[in-house]
Design goal:
Blueprint: H1 2-15, H2 21-30, H3 37-46, E1 50-53, E2 59-62, H4 64-82, E3 83-89, E4 92-97, H5 102-112, E5 117-122, E6 126-131, H6 134-148
Antiparallel strand pairs: 1-2, 3-4, 4-6, 5-6
Helix pairs in contact: 4-5
Length: about 150
């Protein structure tokens, strides 16, 4: 019963922008699953659902992987809008950004979780990206340039 209900919840939040527990309860009821508010609250906690910004500007429930994806998309847009140049030497990539944009662009890079990248360090308009080895640097620069297209 519990597994079926939680599977239904995941299906509902995948198809609809559910903003409140009451809306979620109503959708469950439409599916023939009657629940209390306490049960819905407990399921939300157990499923580790988060409230994220919806495309319409409100908030909706989402799984953490969906939330991360939405966040990553926004960071990538900010990365693309702020990068001025990318160069590398050995295993260090230097990215120049608009003034004051390096921290956001570095957060975008970190949110991508590329396995080749060991870490980033951001100043006001410059990001240092450390990759595992020289061979990886050229490939990562190419991936960054693909994002900028």
């Amino acid at each position: 019963m519990k597994n079926a209900r939680q599977t239904a919840i995941l299906s509902i939040i995948d198809r609809y922008d559910i903003e409140t527990q009451e809306e979620l309860s109503e959708k469950l009821k439409e599916m023939g699953i009657v629940v209390t508010q306490a049960t819905v609250s407990r399921d939300i906690k157990e499923l580790r659902l988060l409230k994220v910004l919806s495309p319409k500007g409100g908030y909706k429930y989402a799984t953490s992987d969906r939330a991360d994806h939405g966040l990553s998309d926004r960071f990538v847009r900010m990365f693309v809008d702020s990068v001025l140049s990318i160069a590398y030497a050995q295993n260090i990539i230097v990215i120049k950004t608009l003034s004051g944009s390096a921290n956001v662009a570095a957060e975008a890079i970190d949110s991508m979780r590329w396995s080749e990248i060991l870490g980033t360090m951001a100043g006001d308009n410059t990001i240092l990206v450390i990759v595992k080895d020289e061979g990886e640097a050229a490939r990562v620069v190419k991936k960054f340039q693909e994002l900028l297209k």
